[in-house]
Amino acid sequence: MELQDKKALVTGASRGIGRAIADRFIAAGAEVWGIGTKEPEDMGERIEKASGRLHWVSADLGDLAATEKLAESLLKESGGFDILVNNAGITRDNLSFRMTLDDFQKVLDVNLTAAFLISRTIGRDMIRRRAGSIINMSSVVGIHGNGGQANYSASKAGLIGLTKSLAQEVASRGVRVNAIAPGFIASDMTNAMAAEAKEKTIEHIPLKRIGQPEDIAEAALFLASASSSYITGQIIAVDGGMFI
C-alpha cells in the first residue's frame, strides 16, 4: 500500500475534499489525524471502520495561538508526521469595496496563516527526520483571481508563494512541499448553485463535468507517496482543463 505505516495530519477533514483525502490516505495504509471545526455526525462510524487509524480533533484554526499549541500537541501525540495536508479553508465572499477588514483578515488567518504555523511546527520535525511531504490546498482562483473573492483569492495565492518558498528551504533535508489547485469541485456550495449557473460553468470545462473530492484526493495521494519523490515546489491544477 502506498502509505503503509505513514502518519498524516489533514486539516479541514470533516467534509468535502479534506474528508476524501483522509479516507483515501487511510485506504492506502496511513494513520490519519483529522482536524475540523465540527465533529461529523458519523465520526464514530468512520473511526470504527478505520480500525483505530483515524483520530479526530475539533478546533478553530482561526484562533492562531491555539492552533500553534494544537500542532505541537499533535506532534507529540503522534510521534511525528510523514505527511501534512493544509486543507482547511473558509470563505467570506463580497465585492472588495464592500468587504470588511474582519472578513478579509479572518479568511487569511484560517486559509494562510494557520497553514504557515502548522507547517512551521510539523516541518521542523520533518527536517530533523530528513523526510516528509507537505501539501497545501490552493485553488485556481489563487492563480487567476475571482471577482467577489479578493480575500479568498489572496489567501490561496499566498499558499502558492508559501509552497514555493518552503520547498526551497527544506528540499536539502529531504522534505517536499507542493500545492494542489482545485477547480470547480462538487461541494455544498456548488450543490446549492442554480442549475443554469452550474451548466454555464461546466461549458467552460474541457472535460465537461464537475470535479469530485476524490479527484483531489488522488492527486494528494500521489504527492504524499514515494511516486512523487522527485517533485517539489509545484502547483498541480486539478480543474478538468478549465484554465488551459
Architecture overview:
Catalyzes the NADPH-dependent reduction of beta-ketoacyl-ACP substrates to beta-hydroxyacyl-ACP products, the first reductive step in the elongation cycle of fatty acid biosynthesis. It catalyses: a (3R)-hydroxyacyl-[ACP] + NADP(+) = a 3-oxoacyl-[ACP] + NADPH + H(+). Keywords: Fatty acid biosynthesis, Fatty acid metabolism, Lipid biosynthesis, Lipid metabolism, NADP, Oxidoreductase. This protein is of the alpha/beta class. It has a single domain, classed as Rossmann fold, CATH 3.40.50.720. Helices cover about 45% and strands about 15% of the residues. It contains nine helices and seven strands. A seven-stranded parallel beta sheet has the order 3-2-1-4-5-6-7, with helices on both faces. Strand 1, helix 1 and strand 2 form a beta-alpha-beta unit. It is globular. The two termini are about 35 Å apart. The model has no long low-confidence stretch (mean pLDDT about 95).
Assigned CATH architecture: 3-Layer(aba) Sandwich
Mean pLDDT: 96
The global form is: globular
Sketch the major β-sheet. 7 strands, parallel
**Class based on secondary structure composition and strand pairing:** alpha/beta
Q: How are the strands ordered across the major sheet?
A: 3-2-1-4-5-6-7
CATH topology: Rossmann fold
In DSSP terms (H or I, runs of 4 or more residues), the helix count works out at 9
Q: Ranges with pLDDT <50 over ≥5 residues? A: none
Strand content: 15-25%
DSSP summary, beta strand count: 7
Order of helices and strands: EHEHEHEHEHHEHHHE
Q: For the CA atoms, what is the radius of gyration?
A: 17 Å
Active site: 152
Binding site for NADP(+): 12-15, 37, 87, 152-156, 185
Keywords: Fatty acid biosynthesis, Fatty acid metabolism, Lipid biosynthesis, Lipid metabolism, NADP, Oxidoreductase
Domain Ketoreductase: 6-183
